[in-house]
Design goal:
Helices cover about 10% and strands about 45% of the residues. It is built from two helices and 29 strands. Strands 11, 13, 15, 17 and 22 form a five-stranded antiparallel beta sheet that branches. Strands 25-26-21-28-29 form a five-stranded antiparallel beta sheet, with no helix packed on it. The radius of gyration is 45 Å and the shape is elongated.
Length: about 425
C-alpha cells in the first residue's frame, strides 16, 4: 500500500515538471519577433538621440528682403551663433527654393568667409554680397542660404539656414524722346507727330505700339472728343541694339467736335502681356479740340483826363517740337476801341516775340544735343489819343487759348489797368 502511494507521488511530480516545461515553451517569443522588437527600440533610441542633438543655433537675421535695380548690388551682414556643445564647420551656400517661380542664381551671391569653424558659444559674422546682373528681368526672386548640410529631423529642410528674397526692377529696354504729347488741335484737320525711340538694351527688341481699348482717362463725367480709332501709329517692329527709329502718330480730328481726348500708347516691348510701367516707358496723349471764339472779349474803363492811352495785349504759347504738320499759325488779335460808344482809331506801335530755349538734354542724354524752344511770348502795343469819357476795348484772339492785356493812361504806373 505504501509502495503504491510512493509510485503515484513520483508520477505526479514528474507530470508537474513536464507541464511547467511545456508552459514555458508556449509563452516564449520566436527569435524573429525578438529581432524586430530590438530594431524598433533601436530606431526609437536613434531618433530620440537625433532630436536631442538638433541644436537651435541662432541666425540673425532669419530672413532678409531687399530690392535692386538690374545692374546694381548690395551688401548685408548675417551673424551665426553656435548654441551647441561641439564645433561646427560652416560652408554657406545658396540653395534653390522648391516650387519657386524665380530663384536667385547662386552666381549672384558671394559669401565671406566661404568656410569657417565656429566654436561652441561663439558668434561668426558673414558678409553677403548680392548682385543683380544688368539683363535681369523684373520680378520677385528668392533662395535659401544654408550654412551647412544638417537637416531638421524627419525633414528635408536645412537646420541652419535663412531665407533671402530679392525684388528686381529691370532696366528699360527702350527710351522715348518724350512720354507726353499735349497739343491744341482744330476740328477737321489732320496732325502728324514724330517721336524718336532708342533701343538701349544689349540685344534687338520688338515693339508693337497700340492704344488699348480702355485707354481713355477715367472720370465719370469725361466724354472723349473723338474715339481712339482716329489715331494711327506706325513704327518699325524690330529695333536693333543701339538703334534709334521714328514712331509716327497721326491724328485725324473729326469735323464739328469739341472737348478733350486722353489716351496712352503701350509700346508692347518684346511682346509683354502686362505692361511694366516702371521699366518700359509708355506714351500719354492729351489733345484739346479748340474752337475759335466768335464774340470778342470786352473791357470798359473810364478816363478823367486827356493823357494818351497805351494798350498792350499778349499771349504765351507752348511749342510742340514733335509736331510735323500742319505748321502752327502765329497768334494774333483783332482790337477795337470806342469812347462814349464812338469808334476810336488806334496806332500800331510795335510787336515783340520772345521765347524760352533749352540747350540740349531737355528730355534725355540719349538724344543729340540741340536747341529746344519750349515757349513763345507774343506782345502787341497800340496807342490812342486821350480824352475824358467812358471807353470800351474789345479783343478777339486768334490761334491762342489765352491772352493778357494792359491799359495805361499817361505815363503813371498807378493808372495802368492790367489783367
Amino acid at each position: 500500500m505504501s509502495k503504491s502511494r510512493g509510485i503515484k507521488a513520483a508520477s505526479l511530480f514528474v507530470g508537474v515538471l513536464l507541464c511547467m516545461v511545456l508552459m514555458q515553451t508556449a509563452f516564449a517569443q520566436p527569435e524573429g519577433n525578438e529581432t524586430i522588437q530590438n530594431a524598433t527600440i533601436q530606431n526609437a533610441t536613434i531618433q530620440n538621440a537625433t532630436m536631442q542633438n538638433a541644436v537651435a543655433n541662432i541666425i540673425d537675421p532669419q530672413s532678409y528682403y531687399t530690392g535692386l535695380t538690374a545692374g546694381s548690388a548690395t551688401q548685408f551682414t548675417v551673424s551665426f551663433t553656435n548654441e551647441g556643445r561641439e564645433a561646427l564647420v560652416l560652408i554657406p551656400k545658396a540653395v534653390a527654393v522648391p516650387n519657386s517661380g524665380k530663384n536667385i542664381d547662386e552666381s549672384w551671391i558671394t559669401i565671406s568667409p566661404a568656410n569657417t569653424t565656429v566654436a561652441p558659444g561663439s558668434v561668426q559674422k558673414f558678409t553677403i554680397d548680392l548682385n543683380a546682373p544688368g539683363d535681369t528681368e523684373s520680378g520677385e526672386y528668392q533662395t535659401i542660404i544654408a550654412f551647412n548640410d544638417d537637416f531638421l529631423p524627419n525633414s528635408t529642410q536645412f537646420a541652419n539656414s535663412m531665407n533671402l528674397q530679392l525684388s528686381v526692377q529691370a532696366l528699360p529696354k527702350i527710351q522715348l524722346e518724350t512720354q507726353y504729347i499735349s497739343d491744341t488741335i482744330d476740328a477737321g484737320k489732320e496732325y502728324e507727330y514724330k517721336i524718336k525711340i532708342k533701343n538701349v538694351a544689349s540685344k534687338d527688341v520688338t515693339i508693337d505700339p497700340k492704344i488699348p481699348v480702355n485707354s481713355n482717362y477715367y472720370d465719370p463725367s469725361y466724354i472723349p472728343a473723338f474715339n481712339s480709332d482716329a489715331i494711327g501709329i506706325s513704327a518699325p517692329s524690330i529695333i536693333k541694339a543701339g538703334e534709334t527709329v521714328n514712331m509716327t502718330i497721326k491724328v485725324k480730328v473729326p469735323k464739328n467736335v469739341t472737348g478733350r481726348y486722353y489716351g496712352n500708347i503701350l509700346m508692347n516691348v518684346d511682346g509683354e502681356v502686362t505692361p511694366n510701367y516702371m521699366n518700359t516707358p509708355q506714351m500719354n496723349l492729351d489733345f484739346t479740340v479748340f474752337k475759335q471764339p466768335l464774340v470778342p472779349y470786352a473791357k470798359t474803363f473810364k478816363t478823367v483826363n486827356k493823357k494818351p492811352i497805351t494798350i498792350e495785349v499778349s499771349t504765351d504759347t507752348s511749342d510742340n517740337p514733335w509736331l510735323q504738320s500742319p505748321k502752327k499759325e502765329k497768334p494774333s488779335f483783332e482790337l477795337k476801341l470806342k469812347r462814349n460808344k464812338n469808334p476810336v482809331n488806334m496806332n500800331f506801335v510795335k510787336s515783340i516775340e520772345s521765347g524760352s530755349v533749352s540747350i540740349g538734354g531737355g528730355y534725355s542724354s540719349t538724344w543729340d544735343d540741340n536747341y529746344q524752344n519750349y515757349g513763345t511770348r507774343y506782345v502787341e502795343t497800340y496807342t490812342a489819343p486821350g480824352a475824358v469819357g467812358n471807353w470800351e476795348l474789345s479783343v478777339l484772339p486768334k490761334n491762342t487759348q489765352n491772352f493778357g492785356y494792359s491799359i495805361t493812361v499817361g505815363d503813371s504806373d498807378n493808372s495802368k489797368l492790367k489783367n
